[in-house]
Structure formats: C-alpha cells, structure tokens
Give the backbone structure.
Amino acid sequence: MFLRPKCNYAGKIVYQIMKHINHSHKYTILVVLISSILVGCNSDGPEIEQPEKIYYDQAQKRMNAKNYYGAIESLEAIENRYPFGKYAEQAQVELIYAHFMNSETEASHTAAEKFIRLHPRHPNIDYAYFMKGLSSYTRDREFLNRVSDTDLSNRDISGAKESFAELTEFLTRFPDSQYAPYAKQRNVYLRNMIAKNELAAADYYLTIDAYVAALRRANYVVENIPNSSENYRALKVLETSYKALGYSELLNDLRVVININYPDEESKQSSRQRSWSWNFLSDSRPERSN
C-alpha cells in the first residue's frame, strides 16, 4: 500500500535539493518544485486501497440505505481488487441483486450468467438462475406501463419469452428452491401474456381474412403454451379458421374437444347468442355482456 507523503515535509525536501544546485538555476528549479509539491498536496492523489472487508461492509450499508449505485461501486471494487479474496464470490452474487434493484436489468442478467459460468456448484447457484430469468423481463421496467392502461399483449414480448424459458429451466433444475414458488407465479403471468400476444396477432389476421396465419398463431398457443388463460380463445380462433378454410373434418373434431373441455364456456356463448336473437326479434336493445 502506497501512501502520499505528508505535506508538512515539503519545505525540508526543497531545502535539501537546493543545497546541491548551482545558484543560477536555483530560481527556476525552485518554482517547478514548489508548484509540483503544492499540486500534490491539494489533489486527491493516488486512491488508498481499503481492506476487502471494509469494501464489503460499505456495500452492505449502502444496500440497506437503498443506495444501489454506491453498493455496486463497492462490490465491483472487491471483484476487481480481490478476485480470489474471502468476499469475492459473495460480492459477485450480490452484484446481481444490486444491478436489478438499480433498474439495470441487462447488467443483472450478465452478472447472473457470469456467476453461473464461474461457480456452477456454488450454494447460491439457484439464486443466480432465478435472477437470470427474472431480469430478462420485468413488467415494471417501463414507467408508462405502471401508470397507463397499456395492453402489454400487443407489445414486443421477446424478453417475456426469454424470461419464461429461463424460469422454466430454473424450475426444472431447482424444483425445491426457496425461490421456486415465486418463479411459478411469475411464469403464470408470463405464460398468459405470451398467449395474449399471439392471439392479438391472430385476431388481426382474422380481420383481413388471413386464416392460415391466424391458424398458425392459435396452434402455437395450444401446442406450446398449455394451461394458459387463453386456451379457449385459441380454440375458437381455430374453429373460425377451420370453418372459413372448409376443413370440415378438423372442425368437427375441434368442436368435440371444445365441448368436452369447456362446456361452461360453450353454454355461456349459446346463451349470449340466444339473447341477441331474442332481443333482435322483439325489437329491443340487447344488453352488453361483460
């Protein structure tokens, strides 16, 4: 560790040097030396390295104060200056959290991947996999999504698909992890969002009579996103597409599947259709269904 010399020795240093210099050059060199020493005394000088534990304790205090930017600085100092130290691995895993809480989801994802690559058998490896999936997509990462009625199903959801895949991998690897319940809850939300996004596109294709394209989107939901909240809606898109394309055999088989799996939904739809028909014949205004 290198420390700056104390500035109260500056006069002695100058005097000893001047004793060995010719008088004609004393003035010029004196100005240069004094200027250099004064600059050294007034500047910050070389940064003094702190022991590893001081950095770690500093990071904890900053984290507790929600100063995540400052915590990141302290944790990165440990990682850079003490890569094989006692707190190096813990600093790396806490960097994942600090970046995430500082709204730096890409940095959090990168930190998680790095930790998984370097420490595949670490006791906290399940946390790294969990945070990797969580940081791929975050519903609240855009402020407007929190304060407006923006329909996220109509937006780019590539991050949601990545997050769903990564959290699914996490649940497969660590089904008994303490983070598994939250990951399952998160995946339900992501699964439904992805399905809604696919069917939003399918609905658009139906409006322009692009039935093959609509069929592909609905099939994707049924085959790849099972148990989503949109399965019935996907089957109805398939029904409309099969009927329009003249696929009679597939249409009949599909209607059997719908009646078996969603008898209540079909009865509700039949009731709504009868209500509209009756209201039309009686020349009365139909009530809007919720």
Remarks:
- Residues 29 and 105 are 55 Å apart (CA to CA).
- The two ends are 73 Å apart (CA to CA).
- Confidence is low (pLDDT under 50) at residues 1-21, 26-44, 139-150, 273-290.
- DSSP finds 14 helices and no strands in the chain.
